[in-house]
Design brief:
heterodimer, A: 230 residues, mainly alpha, MetI-like fold, 0% strand, flat, B: 238 residues
């Protein structure tokens, strides 16, 4: 095996990792904010808001992310009304479109995770808190949020890993992420497997680290589930 | 031209091409799901077998293909199988490049991804079978093949159905990535239409609407199948 080629390829791919991670981090954070709004609508008790939240989740989970990305990047840019609007400096930028599109998609999945976590909070705990006189924000901050967070973590970690994998799609809208750099090296050198294998190893390592970090967080947040020292 | 005439079925209309693309999407996803079921079945078997090496191999397969980007797997399978086939053709004395049909490579890629997840679904489904039923089967003298066919397989299918429904949706959406190999499924037709009419917004929105119809309709199908498969079961709740 040509180790010079391997190390040169590795260097080039690592050089593209910051962009992959930036798209991931920004879209995940923005997605969490949107998801919080969608979850709030979903549990609001108001019929039109619930219907709207359900439709949002169904549409974004029921269509491929690739076509959502193309609607935002190629589709919106083709509309004269969008080109004339205040959003144009934002929507003409491939990076911003990638973040927006990935965020809207993950928001639908995250909203379902948040909803499931809220439903898993035992009603007795909420009743007890109310009996103590807690309400509103304090009830949420002290009782509902900590319990829901623990329930949400395993599914949330899976979603974070899905999002790392989803960032590879931004290579199709002209961004130089790990995936597209690997494809360019493949095209330039005509080496079939190595660039893709090295890129795969980088993605796998990132996912492994994220998975391990979430597992650590889970253990830290659930000390009461640890086996007792004998 | 404007309006919705581009989605029509007359001359210059893309309605028929889009529906053909949607049919291709369904076909390649279904083939992918079946390939995935075969792979997933073997991987689940390897992990449940108790054999150390087979179990480790099964676990490695599931971990690997769930940790890699789907797009990377699609490229890898497409380029990789073509290179393998070309090398094999060279060995057989045939010169020149031999490409794997985009459909076969696409279905295989979707299947390889789906298989990693289906293995987990099948494994969990097998564990949900009540031990006593297996003991009863053995005690009435069933051999392993008969026990698999009469006791294990029907129950695994029943317990796996909700998970498989989810994975069918995932396969349907992953199949859009095959458009990079040039297979004329729905995503690719939308791209071609967007390019040749210069109306990407309408085409991608139309394509997305067709995907949504397919996912919603097939979800109902899986729900109905689930209701039918569990009609004789007692439930703890619901």
């Amino acid at each position: 095996m040509d180790w010079g080629f391997v190390s040169a390829t590795f260097d080039k791919l690592i050089g593209a990792l910051p962009l992959t991670l930036a798209v991931w981090a920004l879209s995940v954070i923005l997605g969490a904010l949107v998801a919080a709004g969608v979850t709030w609508m979903r549990v609001s008790g108001s019929k039109p808001l619930i219907a709207l939240a359900r439709a949002y989740v169904a549409v974004f989970r029921g269509t491929p992310l690739l076509i959502q990305l193309f609607i935002v990047y190629y589709g919106l840019a083709s509309l004269p009304a969008v080109r004339a609007s205040v959003f144009w400096p934002f929507l003409r930028n491939a990076f911003d479109c990638a973040v927006l599109s990935l965020a809207l998609c993950t928001a639908a999945y995250q909203a379902e995770i948040f909803r499931g976590a809220l439903l898993a909070v035992p009603p007795g705990q909420v009743e007890a808190a109310r009996a103590c006189g807690m309400s509103g924000l304090i009830l949420f901050r002290r009782i509902i949020f900590p319990i829901a967070l623990r329930h949400a973590l395993p599914a949330y970690s899976t979603e974070m890993i899905s999002m790392v994998k989803a960032t590879a799609l931004v290579s199709l809208i002209t961004l130089w992420d790990v995936m597209s750099v690997a494809l360019k090296i493949r095209n330039d050198t005509l080496v079939t497997y190595l660039p893709l294998i090295i890129a795969g190893a980088i993605y796998f390592a990132v996912n492994y680290i994220i998975g391990a970090a979430f597992l650590g967080l889970e253990r830290r947040l659930s000390p009461h589930l640890k086996p007792r020292p004998s | 031209m404007g309006g919705l005439d581009i989605f029509g079925f007359g001359p210059g209309g893309w309605g028929f091409a889009l529906l053909q693309g949607a049919a291709m999407t369904l076909l390649v996803s279904a083939c992918g799901l079946l390939i995935g079921a075969t792979i997933g079945g073997f991987v689940a078997w390897a992990r449940l077998s108790g054999a150390l090496l087979a179990g480790a191999a099964g676990q490695a397969y599931a971990a690997l293909f769930r940790g890699l980007p789907e797009l990377l797997i699609v490229y890898f399978v497409y380029f990789g199988t073509s290179t393998l086939l070309t090398a094999a053709a060279h060995a057989a004395g045939y010169e020149g490049f031999v490409g794997v049909p985009a459909f076969a490579a696409g279905a295989l890629a979707v299947g390889v991804i789906s298989g990693a997840y289906q293995a987990e679904v099948f494994r969990a489904a097998y564990r949900a079978i009540v031990r006593g039923e297996l003991e009863a089967a053995i005690s009435v003298g069933m051999n392993r093949a008969l026990m698999f066919r009469r006791i294990i397989a029907p129950q695994v299918m029943r317990f796996a159905l909700p998970g498989l429904g989810n994975l069918w949706q995932v396969a349907l959406k992953d199949s859009s990535l095959i458009s990079v190999t040039g297979l004329t499924e729905l995503m690719r037709v939308s791209q071609v239409g967007a390019g040749s009419t210069h109306r990407p917004f309408a085409f991608y929105l139309g394509g997305a609407a067709l995907y949504l119809v397919m996912t919603l309709a097939t979800t109902r199908l899986f729900d109905a199948a689930e209701a039918r498969a569990t009609r004789g079961m007692r439930r703890a709740a619901g």
